[in-house]
Sequence to fold (350 residues):
Amino acid sequence: MLTLLTAMYVVVRAVSSEAEPIRVLVTGAAGQIAYSLLYSIAKGDVFGKDQPIILVLLDIPPMLPVLDGVVMELQDCALPLLREVIPTDKVEVGFKDLDAAILVGSMPRKEGMERKDLLKANVAIFKTQGAALEKYAKKTVKVLVVGNPANTNCLIAAKSAPSIPKENFSCLTRLDHNRASSQVAMRCGVPANNVKNVIIWGNHSSTQYPDVHHAKVNVHGSEMAAYDAVKDDAWLKGDFISTVQQRGAAVIKARKLSSAMSAAKAICDHMRDIWFGTKEGEFISMGIYAAGNSYGIPEDLIYSFPVQIKNKSWKVMDGLAINDFSRAKMDATAAELVEERDTAMAFLSQ
Fold:
């Protein structure tokens, strides 16, 4: 009898000690990036192998039939951590009580559309989504903006949710970071995880600056500076930078579709690092609010910096030496972001 009671106690305790589900929103949830992303989130690759998930999938009304198919597939995966899937086109449902928001959906650039037209359309979207975060989400929500132009969309969302700390907003430059790491790794003939501490400075655009002056490469068990490992300064200052800057366009040209698999992987990397922190002695790249930075970057921007993360809080890696080559490229991408911000703010105030 005692054994039976003990067994019942163990079962009850196991059930009661299970973590509360977290609510995770993905916007643009019927799109191709989300299709590559949702399985990884739902099976525990991002928020932990013992963290139950409620997935909230938001898209525009015409995409709801497609979204129904995505929901069916998630159900058919029979994933033990997935407690509920909520498809919706309503912000009051989508943004309610969120722990994490991954804002993938945005207006894509169409043929003949000028950049200012793209900005205007996206200001309207991210103003609405920021206001919805303000009204419905938890104040502790972590918000990752993926939809382009990601930096400026992130800034608009943050400004439209004034009671949520600016530190809770970030935009995705991890894809660029991963691309840069991979290019160096291939050049050195080592696995990608043998490269650490590359930096993406600035905008998630063709002005971004992939910087390896502080990167390290492990070659045959010996860690060395990236410039010493690659042994080709001309490549690192030329083709390497342009390859990373133009990689998205190269994928579109080859695939006739934008990066989805690699973008989804980068989103997972970014959010997992927010939840669990970066490795000791390593930093990663993410677009964050530039207030109080030590690198002379204008403050009211979302700008990609090297950061370390601990207890779900990021800290910019200060004190890195910046040479004249890097300074010029960091300032050029900042100038583009200032122009984007000023254009977007004019639309925001209309």
